[in-house]
Model the fold of this input.
Amino acid sequence: MSYIPAQNAKHALRKVLRAIDQNITIVNGDRSWRNYAIAQFRQNSQEQDAKIISKQICAAVDYAYLVESVRSHRDLLFSYNISTSKDAGQMAQNTRTAAAVGLGMPKTE
Done:
């Protein structure tokens, strides 16, 4: 019976690491999120209660799904040219720069 939860845990870990590598680590080059996920799986590897193991595996799979969903949602927003906080900050910087040289930014609304 312990073979099945071990396979599920391995699958969940791979899914979490893949989501972290594709969406977090590649963006900022910081491997601390990956190391944290591995440490959490190792810390909980000696757990014997099947219900707790099942909840932890479900939480890991849900986290991977959340990371992927946030990325796809952000991509969807960018495809429709909807401003995000970084874009708004860039627009504010451009407005200040234009004002410094005596120009004005065109109205976008």
Observations:
- The chain has a mean pLDDT of 82.
- The longest helix spans residues 50-79.
